[in-house]
Amino acid sequence: MASISESRQQRRARERAERKGATRTGPHHQLPLSDPHPLNATAGDIQRTRVLDVELYRFVDPDDPAYMSWSAEWGMRDDSQGGEDSNENLQKLVNAVIEDARHWTNQFDLRIEWTLNGDPPPGGTIADAVIA
C-alpha cells in the first residue's frame, strides 16, 4: 500500500515495478544506444550500464473508437524518478522519450527496453499499430 507522503512519481515508479513483477503482457523490445559490453570494457565500465524502462500504451476511447492516442512512462530501472508524456502522434512521443534519455547518456551506458501495452487495433496487435 502507498504511504501518504508518496509523490506521484514515486507512486508511478512503484506501480511500474509492481507491474513488471507480474507477468508482462506486451512484446518486449530493446533499443541499445551503446554496446553494454564492448570488447575492451572494464568491470567499472560494465557497472555503469543502466536500463531505461519505457512502457508505451495505446489508448482507444471506448465512446469514440476513432480517437486513439499514445502515452509513455519511463524511468531508470530500480529508480523512483521518471517521466511521462502522451501524444496522438507516436513518432513525436518516441522522440520525446529518446530526447529525455539523452540526458542520461553522459553518465551511463544506456539501454532502452520498450514494453507495449494497451488497446490493440481491430484484428491486430499493438506491435502492428507501432509499425503502422
Order of neighbouring strands in the sheet with most strands:
1-5-2-3-4
- How many individual β-strands? 5
What proportion of the residues form beta strands (DSSP E)? 25-35%
**Could you tell me how far the N terminus lies from the C terminus, measured between alpha carbons in angstroms?**
39 Å
Query: How would a textbook summarize the main sheet?
Result: 5 strands, mixed
Shape: elongated
Tell me, rounded to a whole number, the average pLDDT: 77
Question: What are the low-pLDDT stretches, counting only 5+ consecutive residues below 50?
Answer: 22-39
Q: How many H/I helical runs?
A: 4
Q: How many domains make up the coordinates?
A: 1
Structural class: alpha+beta
Helix content, binned percent:
25-40%
Report the order of strands and helices. HEHEEEHEH
* Radius of gyration, whole Å: 16 Å
Could you explain the architecture of this structure?
- The protein starts with 7 loop residues before the first helix and ends with a helix.
- It is built from four helices and five strands; from the N terminus they run H-E-H-E-E-E-H-E-H.
- The chain is 29% helix and 35% strand.
- The protein is elongated.
- The chain has a five-stranded mixed beta sheet with strand order 1-5-2-3-4.
- It has one domain.
- It is an alpha+beta fold and 132 residues long.
